[in-house]
Amino acid sequence: MSVSFSNFPAPFPAQLSCFCCIYATGKNIHTVTSDRFVLYGGSATICQRFCGLKLWLLDRLHLKHCGKKHGLSESKIIKNQDKLDSHLETSSSNDGRDSEGVSTFSVPNVTKRPTSKLQAHSPNFPVQSDQAPSLCIAVIGATGELARRKIFPALFALYYSGFLPENVGIVGYSRKNLTDEDLRSIIASTLTCRIDHRENCGGKIDAFLSRTYYLNGGYDNREGMLKLSALMEHIEGGFEANRIFYLSVPQEALLDVASTLAISAQTQKGWNRIIIEKPFGFDALSSHWLTKALLSKFQEKQLYRIDHLLGRNLIENLTVLRFSNLIFEPLWSRTYIRSIQVILSEEMGVQSGRYFDGYGIIRDIVHSHILQTIALLAMEPPISLNGEDIRNEKVKVLRSIRRLEPSNVILGQYKATSDDKVDVKLNSLTPTYFAAVLYIDNARWDGVPFLIKAGMGLIKHRVEIRIQFRHVPGNIYHDRFGHNINLATNELILRDVPDEAILVPDSYEHLLLDVIDGDNHLFMRSDELTAAWNILNPVLQEIDKNNIAPELYELGGRGPVGAYYLWAKHGVQWTED
């Protein structure tokens, strides 16, 4: 993640950068142009030192409770923490970098802590005693691409870092006729250790694979789930147990799998949590019936609707930027902010035709990721960092968003040929690009346009939030900018910058750890789903009636030309780096 400030008339003070935003260091200030100063703190740097105010508070206030949860005695916690503190103190050098080349800085009056939620324990630290409750994780749809490329590697990363108990059981469930060794061979090639800690990597991979099992559930899920429960009970050995079920299955199979799981596979000796992959329905009506069916089998607190894009460092730290920052929080309203842009662009459209053709970018990305980002940006301060309190504030924002008018929407679809190595089997009305302007009808944001842009097959990968501030009244530098001041703006730019190494925890790791911890603030609740569909329904209905057609754009280009005019219509300058 990087934070940049553009069009400030003077260099941003190095000391103020540490006070202003904990994600950047004074040593990482780079002048990009004569009037823009960018503070880069790559996501590796962030995760090495700070992962958020919430994590620090939990570490300080609930350390004893967490130790009991994971089977650690208080003396072990103190001893291990002292080791980590000592390592942090001795590994820093005069040039502000630790032994692994990660930029560091100090914060006055704050005890140094390991900052990444996924790096807080050394791999050598035990996280569970033999008597502690075990954990079983079932991956339903274990032979699919998502499970092989993302879910199993994320589970291994958590296991290696000490965030899964040593006696964890992981069960892959699908309809294919495989053995335990077959599954282990399939996923072994996808497992890797991050370059920041490779100690005993091979041994950990072997240990993880030995705790991984396979079950052929057949085509009768009722019988299959009974077998799954029996296998998990065998792994648990009769002890108290918690279970997580990751449903990596097509939407058409979701209800059958979930229903039979609810009846036959839940444990009575611990909690059960169900992870559901997006999209969460096709429209408001289908989402309503899906939610109703799920809530007839599970409690709301058991359901974790996962969107991996919400596990990015940028999203994880939005609440920290807003609510722990004395400079930004007083400015966070219509009084000082004139527009906000949320941008997500991908270089290549890689969704399969069977999936993306039916749902498009609105149902896949805008409904969950984009609207959730806006909710986190615009919500009022929650009464606590409890997940339900944060969700309560998010849903208030979503309910306050004005219904989206088709006149404030631009749809696009990339033009591709078989030579472009992307899916060209898209339906003629399936959008791969979406730009729109939203308004939040409440006292804080009245009249401030929120501009969203999401697209596939664009010129470059980009995940960015741009907050544009209002002009200073009576600006004495009016005649010194060298151009029309009305076209210039002061901006706060939040960027998620991917690292070129296997160093930063993957978004699936963040979110899976949240599920284990019971932290649900980045997972959509049922009322949030409904509110989000109500925003998008007018546009979806117009698409279904063939009243809106996507504008074609070149693969690898900047998207539809109409988006430029939409920005101008609402008085916002279009910016391209």
What is the structural class? Answer: alpha/beta
Read across the widest sheet, the strand sequence of neighbours is 2-3-1-15-14-10-13-12-11-16
Please give the radius of gyration in angstroms: 24 Å
Largest sheet: 10 strands, mixed
Oligomeric state of the chains in view? single chain
Strand content: 15-25%
Helical amount: 25-40%
Task: Kindly describe this structure.
This protein has 577 residues and is of the alpha/beta class. It has 18 helices and 16 strands. The protein has helices at residues 14-20, 43-49, 53-61, 63-69, 74-91, 145-160, 180-188, 201-210, 221-236, 251-264, 284-295, 313-316, 318-323, 353-378, 387-400, 507-517, 526-544, 562-569, and strands spanning 2-6, 29-33, 36-40, 134-140, 169-174, 212-216, 241-247, 272-277, 303-306, 337-345, 409-415, 433-439, 449-455, 462-469, 490-495, 551-554. The strands form 2 sheets. Strands 2-3-1-15-14-10-13-12-11-16 form a 10-stranded mixed beta sheet, with helices on both faces. A 6-stranded parallel beta sheet has the order 6-5-4-7-8-9, sandwiched between helices. Residues 7-129, 349-355 and 499-503 have low confidence and may be disordered.
